[in-house]
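[audit] Reproducing an earlier prediction to check determinism. Same input, same settings, fresh worker. If the tokens differ from the archived copy the diff job will pick it up downstream; this log only records the rerun itself.
[audit] input (220 residues):
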Amino acid sequence: MYIDIHTHRQNKETALQIRSMQVHELHKLSFLDFDWYCFGLHPWDVQPETVDAQLQELWAHTSDERMLAIGEVGLDKHVNANLELQTYAFNKQIEMAQQLSKPMVIHCVKAYNELMAIRKKSDMNLPWIIHGYNANWAIAEQLIDMNCYLSFGEMLFQPNSKAVECIASINPDRLFFETDDSRFSIEDIYEQAAKLLFIPTDILKAQIMDNFSSCFKAEK
């Protein structure tokens, strides 16, 4: 099957999906039909008056057996949310992931230096999956050296994007693919990636399944 590592929609017929949810959606968990979820406090939603209560609610749901990872969480300089407060929430969720031995799905916009500094300081070796990767190869190389996977999506269809520029330089054992909330199907994204990597789609599917097994060892 195709693996959609980060999505906000449903296509269980042809893909193994990790449904990404935020704290304010957790009340829906018992009604939604997904095999696996990741959930976390998104940097867009971090507010000083609610952050600690949101983190407590997140922790209360981490016993759900369908929870595969903490995410999406991280840093975003493109929004008005205070970066110091975003960092506080991110570090608290890193602590959760360490206690749970879970990987993390990372949202990062214009904050890769800060993200990598936090990674180094945390001394955390559990995998991070950088979702929607669209930065350059130099950053990609550093992230991979820190045991990160890079997940690509709709930007693979933009010929001048940094995603297209750097994907061929990345060892396939560090790749994932995602639909996020785009109009493209996961099949479309795999096909486009296979063209850019000059390998058959079936070979790519097998590699991503191996990556999934390696990243989520406890859930194989």
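[audit] rerun output stored. Observation attached for the diff report: The chain has a mean pLDDT of 92.
[audit] end
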